[in-house]
Amino acid sequence: ARTLQLLKKFDEALKPLEKVLKKQPNNEKALQLYVDSLEKLGRLSEALPAAQALLQIRPNDIYYLQQCGM
Length: 70
Prior knowledge:
With about 70 residues, this protein is mostly helical. Helices cover about 75% and strands about 0% of the residues. The chain has five helices and no strands. It has helices spanning about 1-5, 10-25, 30-40, 45-55, 60-65. Helix 2 (about 10-25) runs antiparallel to helix 3 and helix 3 (about 30-40) packs antiparallel against helix 4. The N and C termini lie far apart (about 25 Å). The model has no long low-confidence stretch (mean pLDDT about 85).
């Protein structure tokens, strides 16, 4: 998925990330890549729940706080 992001194929990156998150919903790296891909596609309302899940994992992480608009 990271390689697809680097190639700016954000839409294609979502499927493998969704597959990982289905099995491992708290996979921090997959969540982060998922949020990043959705943001790049302008799908902010879909990115927000995943960004909030990241905050549950790391509540004081400034990067995740910024992604949630805090």
